Fold this sequence. Notes:
- Pfam families: PSCyt1 (PF07635), PSCyt3 (PF07627), PSD2 (PF07624), PSD4 (PF07631).
- By secondary structure, the chain is mainly alpha-helical.
- The chain contains 33 helices and 12 strands.
- Among the domains are: 2-24 and 161-313, no CATH class; 37-125, no CATH class.
- The longest helix has 21 residues, at 453-473.
Amino acid sequence: xxxxxxTLSCLLLPLGYSCLVQIASVYxxxxxxxxxxxxxxxxxxxxxxxxxxxxxxNCHHGEKIEGELDLLALDTDLKGSTSAxxxxxxxxxxxxxxxxxxxxxxxxxxxxxxxxxxxxxEMKRAGKHLARREAYNNGNKIPHHMLFAPQQAAPLDAPPRxxxxxxxxxxxxxxxxxxxxxxxxxxxxxxxxxxTFKDMHLPKVDExxxxxxxxxxLALVERQTGFTREGDELKPxxxxxxxxxxxxxxxxxxxxxxxxxxxxxxxxRALEREPTAEELQRxxxxxxxxxxxxxxxxxxxxxxxAVFLLPEGIFxxxxxxxxxxxxxxxxxxxxxxxxxxxxxxxxxxxxAWLSAAAASGDLDTQEGVAVAVRKLLADAKLAKPxxxxxxxxxxxxxxxxxxxxxxxxxxxxxxxxxxEDTDQLISNILEQDKQVLKELLTTNKAFVMYKGAxxxxxKRAEALAKFEEDKKKDPVKFKDKKPNxxxxxxxxxxxxxxxxxxxxxxxxxxxRAGILTQPSWLVAWSTADDxxxxxxxxxxxxxxxxxxxxxxxxxxDAQLPDAPHHTLRERxxxxxxxxxxxxxxxxxxxxxxxxxxxxxGRYRSKETVLDAEATAANLDKKGKPLGKVLKEIPVNSTxxxxxxxxxxxxxxxxNGVELLHKLADSPVTEQVFVRHAFRYWLxxxxxxxxxxxxxxxxxDYVLKDGSMQALIVSLLSSDSFLYRVPAKNAAxxx
Length: 734
C-alpha cells in the first residue's frame, strides 16, 4: 500500500499540487546522548555556539545584555549548576518562537534542532528534569489598554495565509461522500492544543497527514467504483455509483470523451464544480498515463482519487486578489470571502445563494458581507455548529468528559449529561440574544438532563420500587444502603432532589451564577478527587480579566502537598513562596472563591477533611488501626481580584457567585470576551493593527444590547477579516 501511496504522490507532482503531496522525508533520528561533559562541550562548540553568536549575540552577549542573560557566558555544565533553569528558559522561549524576537532573524530548522538537541541531551546527562511540552499560546500578549485606546491607529498586520481545514470541516467534506463506508475514513487533522482555540494551531500537512488523506481518497474511490463480477458482467457493490461503473468496465470503451466525462463527473461529485480548461487537460493526461502504466481499474481509480487531493478540499485560502489599496492591503477574493464566512458559522462550503452573491459582486462591500452574514445567521434550517463550539472551547466545559473521577461518593457520575445541560443553557441564552455575556456569567437558570429527564424518571421509579421490595425481603442487608437511581448523580450535582418538571429550572441565586457555576465547568477544571483552584483562577485571569499567567517553568514539577487533613486552601500555602507567588498571585485569590463548590459541582457550606487526631486514636483493643476518621469544617471561599485592568473590580469577595456578578458588570470583561471571539473567528491572535476591529466589535455588541449575532457580524465583516497585507508591504503601510 505504501508503494501505491508514494506512486500517487509522485504522479500528482507534475500537476502542480506539491503543496499537498510532496511528502517530507521523515526519519526517526537517533537521540543525542552525552557520555561525558567533554562530549557535551564539544557538541556545544560544534553546533550551538555559532547559533547563539549569530542569532542571539546582539541582545544576549557583549556590552549590552538584555535581561541580564549572557548566553555565551552561561555554564554549559548543568550538573550541580544553577544555569540549568536558565537554559530551560531559553529552550522554552525558542520553542514558543518568542525568541529571537519578531524583528530579529529566526532560527533555521537546523539551528532550532541543534539548540534543542544539545539542551535536552545535556539536561539528561546532568540528571536534570526537563518536562518537554509545547508552549501554550493564550493570547493577551498585547496590553489591553493599547488595543482599546481610541487613538490607536496602527496599520493592519495580517499576512496572506493558507491553512489546513479543521477536523470538523474535513469530516463534513467526506461525510456525504463516504456514506456506508465511514469506518474506512480516518481523520488526518488533529489540533495541537497550543492555544485556547483549536483552529488557531492546526497541523501542517506532513507525511503522516498526507498518507492519511491519500488513503481516504483511495477508500472513497474504491467504494465509489466497487463491483463484483457475475460472469463477464460487473455488478455494483453497496455504495457504488452506477455512473462511474462504466469507467472501470474493461468491456466498454474508454476514449478521450469517456475520460473527460469521468473527470467532470468526479469534479461535480467531489468539489461541486466543473474543472477549469487547464485542470481538464492535466487530469486527462494524468488518467491516460495511469491507464497505460497501471491498467484499467487501478488507472481510473487513482486518477479519480486525485480530485479528492486538490488543495481546496484540504486547505483554506486567504490570499486576496486584485491590486493593493492605498494602505498596502489586498482584499480577499469574493470566493474566498464566501468560503470564509460560510466556514465561520458552518463546517460546509457556501450555500448556492452565497456563491451566487460572490459572483454577482454582492460581497464587494463591507455592508454586502454583513448582509450575507446576517442572512446565514437568520437561516433557521442551516446548522451553525461553530457558534456553540466557540463557547465550548472558550469556557472549556466540554473537558469534563476527560477528567477521570473517583466516584465512591457520586456513583454513576455522568459528565456527558452535564456537558449537554450546559450546551442547552448556552443555546437558550443565544436564542434570546440579549446581554449574552452577562447572562452567561450570572444566570441562575439551568437545564438538568433535559433530553432524558422523563425517561430517567420512569426508570428511577422502577429502580426505587425494586429497592424497596428488596429491602422488605432483607432489611438487615439493605439497612445502610441507598438506592442507585438512574440519573441521580446528574440532578444531585445541581443540589436538586429530582429532575425538574420545568426546563430551565431556577436554582437559588445565592448558589449559582452562570456557566462557571455549572457542574460541567467545575468538573472540567478539577482533578479526579479534588478541586483545582489554581486552574480555575488561571482561567478567570486569562479569559475574563485579559491577563497573562506565565507558563509553569519547564524545570518545575509542581505538586501540592499530599495532606488530606488540610483543606485545599491550606495546601496551596506552599505557592506563597517568593519564587512561586510571582505567578500564583494572579491565580490563587481568583480561584479560591469557587471552593464553595466541590469537584462534582455541588454547592456546599462545609467540606470534609481527615481528622488526624481521631484517626490516630481509632484503634482496636490490640492497637490495630480501624481506619480513617473524617470531619466536616466550614468552607472558606473568600478571595478577590487584584491587578485588574478595571480598578473598580479590585477587592475582596466572599464566594464565586459574588465574584461573577462583579465581573459581569465590567466593560473590560466584555472587551476581553470580544478579544477571544476575535481569535476564534479569525483563527489568529490579535495585533495592534486589529485595534479598530476590536473597538468596533465591542461597540456593535453594546449598541445591540449585548447581541452575540451583532458581534459575529461585526467580526466577519471587519477589515481584519476581509483584507490581507503582503509581507513586503506590512512594514511600509501608511
